[in-house]
Amino acid sequence: MNVERFRVRHKDEHALRDHKPGETPGMHGKKDARERMGRGLELLRERQELLFAQDRYALLLVFQGMDGAGKDSAIKHVLSGVSPQSTTVHAFKAPSEEERDHDYLWRVNRVLPERGRIGIFNRSHYEEVLTVRVHPRLLAAERLPPEHVTRRIWDERFEDINAFERYLFRNGTIIRKFFLHVSRAEQRRRMRVNKQ
């Protein structure tokens, strides 16, 4: 399957609209999906061994998605194919008091994977331009100096994140980001099932 069609390019403002949440192009049922997943996990296992043996690069997998999108399940499937000794998973919930006493990239920076390892983030530093942007009380809780909270704060944070990721890449961290896109109807269904 060609994954290029699912890659979102910089400034692609129509990415979500152009991809239907339930779309499974090239898949021919659950049996086909299970077989492909098995082959993919075997390839991932082989690549993890190389990553560990070379000890030059780190891999950071970032999973974002709405509540009920299946981030936990996707991470569980990814981890089923790799050695747990070479991986770490971090779920980013509401920042702690200690985290709020630092810059917003601090909590991510301190748990980055080391060379030869795979780090998996369930949510990430993108929350700063998603959740915090929608809920002004979260920005207020960061206690930034008032002169730094301008109309440009979100553009500046996008710049910061891009610079941070360039820095990581230039130092050997390969970053792959996954947005799990489900329809609102599917999200509601999953949330109802989880409450029962």
Description:
The radius of gyration is 18 Å and the shape is globular. It has nine helices and four strands. The chain is an alpha/beta fold and 196 residues long. The two termini are 36 Å apart. The model has no long low-confidence stretch (mean pLDDT 87). The longest helix is centred in the first third of the chain and has 26 residues, at 29-54. It has helices at residues 15-18, 29-54, 71-79, 97-100, 106-109, 131-134, 136-141, 153-170, 184-195, and strands at 58-65, 87-91, 118-122, 173-180.
Summarize the structure.
This protein has helices spanning 15-18, 29-54, 71-79, 97-100, 106-109, 131-134, 136-141, 153-170, 184-195, and strands at 58-65, 87-91, 118-122, 173-180. The chain is an alpha/beta fold and 196 residues long. The mean pLDDT is 87.
Structural class: alpha/beta
The gyration radius over C-alpha positions equals 18 Å
Number of helices: 9
SSE sequence, one letter per element: HHEHEHHEHHHEH
Which stretches of 5+ consecutive residues score pLDDT under 50?
Answer: none
Q: Average pLDDT across residues?
A: 87
Any chance you could write out the topology, listing elements then pairs?
Layout: H1 15-18, H2 29-54, E1 58-65, H3 71-79, E2 87-91, H4 97-100, H5 106-109, E3 118-122, H6 131-134, H7 136-141, H8 153-170, E4 173-180, H9 184-195
Parallel strand pairs: 1-3, 1-4, 2-3
